[in-house]
Amino acid sequence: MAGTTISGLTHPVLENDYASEWMGIEVLALGDGHATIRMTLRQEMLNGFGMAHGGMIFAFADSAFALACNPATPAPSSAGTSANTVGAAADSITVASGVDINFLKPAFQGQVITAVADRRSIAGRSGLYDIQIFAADPGSPLPGELIAEFRGRSRTIPKKRN
Q1: Distance (Å, rounded) from C-alpha 41 to C-alpha 120?
Q2: Which of 10, 68, 87, 107 has CA 20 to 30 A from 32's CA?
Q3: Which of 2, 7, 75 is nearest to 36 (CA)?
Q4: Which long-range contacts (C-beta less than 8 Å, at least 24 apart) are formed by 70-79?
Q5: Given pLDDT bands bounded at 50, 70 and 90, which one contains residue 91?
Q6: CA dist., res. 107 & res. 59, Å (int)
Q7: What is the tens place of the pLDDT at every residue in 139-157?
């Protein structure tokens, strides 16, 4: 599953994330409000112009956003959660409430793309995150050239009960 990466880092969000697994996402770094991931662009990720499909870049950035929003180790559940709590408790998850993406340059098959996600602000159950996406040719020093900027707004909600 996508939770196992060459970096050895895992995150509970990836345990059943079949989209991130299909994309071949590797987790490079995790921290409080931060995530860095990478993947290699494959032929089936290209549009009719031979460049990365915008939806692939968006989905890739969205995965970095999810990892930055949700702690790798959820906080214990508590009835009196503080309004300034960062991240999700064991009985809650943090999801996107809205996003914007700006595509700056194209990326192409074989390039390695890297997303760097950082929390900019948090207030109660809402947060703001910036994700930068870079592309580099294989073997080039990462992260490479900036190809897109993604801004995500998050909201912490109760976890769905089975």
Answers
A1: 28
A2: 107
A3: 7
A4: 70/11, 70/12, 70/13, 70/94, 71/32, 72/9, 72/10, 72/11, 72/12, 72/30, 74/12
A5: confident
A6: 14
A7: 887 679 999 999 999 999 9
pLDDT at residue 15, as a whole number: 86
Mapping DSSP to helix (H, G, I), strand (E, B) and coil, where does residue 116 land? strand
- Which domains occur in the chain, in start order? 12-158 (3.10.129.10)
According to DSSP, the residues that pair with 71 across neighbouring strands are none
* Nearest partner of 101 among 122, 127, 132, 142, judged by Cα: 132
- Residue 12, pLDDT score: 81
Q: 144: alpha, beta or left, given left = phi > 0 and alpha = psi -120 to 50?
A: left
Cα separation, 70 vs 74, in Å, equals 8
Per-residue model confidence as pLDDT tens digits over 92-113 = 999 999 999 999 999 999 999 9
Asked whether residue 9 carries a pLDDT value surpassing 90, the answer given is: no
CB atoms inside a 10 Å sphere around CB 62: 20
CB 60 within 8 A of CB 27: no
Q: From residue 134, how far is each of 98, 144, 162 by CA, in Å?
A: 22, 5, 38
